[in-house]
């Protein structure tokens, strides 16, 4: 009898809830079923398209032979264009050399943990949280500490709750604004209070702002734009969602704060990024050129998303057992509470099998996601309407409320 292959113990700790039931969905489609995918935050899977000008820039960059390995920190022209984008979009002043280009924010999160976190280090992450923060904390054996968010106030961080969790073993505090999975957009005051706690304890703040331009109500404030001179900000951002290029895999990390700390963190992260050589060069060149222009295409993108957001908020609250006290204000997710007797994972799996609607179970985002589901409101209204009708039918038929 052959000896079983022994896989790493580490890999067993990874569990990415958003794609966990992909194979099941595919098998349903192979049987001829029409699955409505509300699980993945990818506008390109619906009726959104990459701006034509940007695609043309990519083609041009390839013809110009920008097809070599770039430097690990990124093409200089893109580092500078990102500094320009941050200044004009978010009022963040950074130097191009303090920008590191990554293969998506996903790689940025991995690089961040790889560079800063040792086994047992504490990291503060929101509850609920975008799963990669949970995944990489587990992968690197960090001690992940969830800080509370206030659902009835639209899922904004509970600053007093957060304060109680801070001590000098905390490596960094993660904020994600606008927030995945809840669509929360943080008020300036809440952000400032978190920044002040971080400055007091000399802890870097990691601010994931990948949905920065996708805010439909209220004001988006970038953490780095209101940080004090003592704050160390590790900004994470990217082009997947706002430039509609999820498949290009381009993101960035920027650093702002006291020079010595910034320089230490920069070289640690760059040390990791060197091992993967570089992000895709011609696409970096294309985005660099495009990012200098006024993003007029975003107006129409936001108009469509906003219409779908309003419809989703209204319609979900009509479904028995569903409750969403405050509308999501940004990004493109809804995270309703679903008060049902079966667990949320069972709910999501059965909804997929029985009604062919693919949502993500809330507990995959952290303990407070229990009895919730996350869904994207990116599809056209007719598709959303069909999905919500199927959800309502499922709830009425099979769920003990
Ligand atoms: C909060 C957040 N961060 C990071 C990512 C990863 O994005 P990408 O790797 O495409 O840049 C996502 C994707 O959904 C996200 O929602």
Précis, in short:
This protein has two domains: 143 residues, Alpha-Beta Complex (Aspartate Aminotransferase, domain 1), CATH 3.90.1150.10; 239 residues, Aspartate Aminotransferase, domain 2 (3-Layer(aba) Sandwich), CATH 3.40.640.10.
Low-confidence stretches: none
Q: Give the SSE order as H and E letters.
A: HEHHEHEHEEHEHEHEEHHHEEEHEEEH
Give the number of domains. 2
Which strand order do you get reading across the main beta sheet?
Answer: 2-9-8-7-6-3-4-5
Structural class, from helix and strand content?
Answer: alpha/beta
Number of helices: 13
CATH class of the largest domain: Alpha Beta
Beta-strand percentage range: 5-15%
Radius of gyration: 21 Å
CATH architecture of the largest domain: 3-Layer(aba) Sandwich
Percent helix, as a range, is 25-40%
By CATH, the superfamily of the largest domain comes out as Type I PLP-dependent aspartate aminotransferase-like (Major domain)
Q: Characterize the overall form.
A: globular
Average predicted local confidence, pLDDT: 96
Q: Report the span from N to C terminus.
A: 50 Å
The overall strand count is 15
Structure ligands? pyridoxal-5'-phosphate
Which fold does the CATH topology of the largest domain refer to? Aspartate Aminotransferase, domain 2
Largest sheet: 8 strands, mixed
Family: Belongs to the class-I pyridoxal-phosphate-dependent aminotransferase family.
EC number: 2.6.1.-
GO molecular function, one term: transaminase activity
Domain Aminotransferase class I/classII large: 35-391
């Amino acid at each position: 009898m052959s000896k079983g292959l022994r896989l790493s113990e580490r890999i067993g700790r990874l569990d990415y809830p958003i794609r966990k039931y992909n194979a099941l969905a595919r098998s349903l489609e192979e049987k001829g079923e029409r699955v409505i995918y509300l699980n993945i935050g990818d506008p390109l899977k619906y009726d959104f398209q990459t701006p034509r000008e940007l695609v043309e820039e990519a083609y041009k960059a390839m013809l110009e032979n920008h097809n070599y390995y770039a430097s690990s920190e990124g093409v200089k022209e893109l580092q500078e264009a990102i500094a320009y984008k941050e200044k004009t979009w978010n009022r963040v002043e950074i130097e191009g050399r303090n920008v590191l280009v990554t293969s998506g924010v996903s790689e940025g999160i991995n690089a961040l943990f790889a560079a800063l976190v040792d086994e047992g280090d504490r990291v503060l992450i929101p509850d609920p949280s975008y799963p990669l923060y949970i995944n990489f904390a587990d992968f690197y054996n960090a001690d992940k500490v969830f800080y509370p968010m206030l659902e009835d106030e639209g899922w904004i961080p509970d600053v007093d709750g957060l304060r109680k969790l801070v001590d000098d073993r905390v490596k960094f505090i993660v904020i994600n604004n606008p927030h995945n999975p809840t669509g929360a957009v943080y008020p300036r005051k809440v952000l400032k209070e978190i920044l002040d706690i971080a400055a007091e304890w000399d802890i870097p703040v990691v601010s994931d702002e990948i949905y920065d331009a996708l805010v439909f109500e209220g004001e988006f404030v970038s953490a780095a734009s209101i940080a004090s001179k003592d704050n160390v900000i590790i900004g994470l951002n990217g082009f997947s969602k706002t430039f509609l290029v999820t498949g290009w895999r381009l993101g960035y990390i920027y650093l702002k704060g006291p020079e010595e700390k910034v320089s230490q963190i920069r070289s640690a992260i760059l040390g990791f990024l060197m091992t993967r050589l570089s992000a895709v060069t011609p696409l970096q060149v294309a985005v660099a050129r495009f990012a200098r222009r006024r993003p007029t295409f975003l107006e129409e993108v936001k108009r469509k998303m906003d219409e779908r957001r309003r419809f989703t908020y209204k319609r979900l609250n009509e479904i028995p057992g569903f409750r969403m006290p405050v509308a999501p204000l940004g990004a493109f997710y809804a995270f309703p509470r679903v008060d049902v007797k079966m667990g949320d994972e069972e709910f999501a799996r059965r909804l997929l099998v029985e009604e062919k609607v693919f949502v993500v179970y809330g507990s995959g985002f952290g303990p407070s996601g229990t009895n919730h589901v996350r869904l994207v409101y990116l599809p056209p209204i007719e598709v959303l309407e069909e999905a919500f009708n199927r959800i309502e039918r499922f709830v009425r038929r099979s769920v003990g409320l």
